[in-house]
Fold this protein.
Amino acid sequence: MTETAAPDDAELDAFRARCIAFLEEHGTPPLVTGPDPRSDKSVKACKDFQNKLADAGLAGITYPTEFGGQGLSRAHDRVWREEYAKYPDSTSQLTISQGMALPVLNQFGSDDQKRQFMPDNIRGNTLWCQMFSEPGAGSDVASLQTKAVRDGDQWIINGQKVWTTLAHQSEYGILIARTDPDVVKHAGISMFMVDMRDPAVEIRPIHQIDGGMHFNEVFFTDLAIPADWLVGELNNGWNQATAMLMYERVAIGTGSVGGITHPYANRLIKSATKAGTITDPNIRQDIMRVYSQEVAKSLVSMRTRAEMKAGREPGPGGSLGKLHGAIIMRLMREIVGPIAGAEMMAWEDDNSSNQWSQFMLSSFMANIAGGTDEIQRNIIGDRVLGLPRDISVDKGVPFNELKVGTQSA
């Protein structure tokens, strides 16, 4: 992202008026109800909203105009987030596509790649997924075994990824694969773009306990991609993947809005008021626990956004916001039941307790997606607080000599 000259108050006031006018017309889209197990309706709703944003000149606010953005300042972006926070989030299904893939392309992609792929991403015409995790490389992503081999003017990719969010809805994906097995595991990894619609890509849904199918297994069998779909430097994929994970934790931890927000506390207050339990001192105390955590998370997010506004790329501090979000989900699982009551287990079709039930079942992913709570605490301890690192038994050992994941030799 390119920082432009600081705008004056009059310019920001005029921009705020544009944001308000847009949100008054489009900020409360029709609610997507029902199970939507393959996310068809919800993804379409997000894409439609993003298209309208682009038509109004409000999509990709800080990205250069030559790559489909608006070329505006981070101050403009802050104004948009402040106003957007007052409305329902209409871009939740675009978190990976725009919160991770887009900034990685902008930071590491060639100018040709940016011109070809960023405008459609910014408009929401294309959806992108991220493919890092494998059956034998979850928390230890650097142990991945998916291979990319150069063959003339192509790369040939073989392997498997798992837990890929919205792979079945995505037109493109960002993938990391091993390109040199003869060096230590972190050093022989490269990053690529792939076409998810290619016949050599097989996508299998993972059925979730809440009835959804948000995640997928993805298999690559002799997938051929153009040589120039390598993103960034050959064998530097680990550093690029780390940057993408930082963007991911910022996207998850800060969301699409700005300022101090407490949406879950607000929902709990509404439900408790409707149930007539809002005067119960124990329930009030529980709601305040959630409220306090959400305010703390907002303040951490504001600090992260301020650092990005100052021109810094996302760092390990993004794990703080992500961990806060996971803690909030744990608290919510303790609190929702007593407030919603028995209707959470036996609801009528039009009952809001149905939404709470689905929320409860899907909330567990918050403690895993984007890195487990344990991983976040390790990052915070090591890279934020400067505590001693864990012992690494594979330091300096070439990948092809390791017995990791499903690799037997």
The chain has a mean pLDDT of 87.
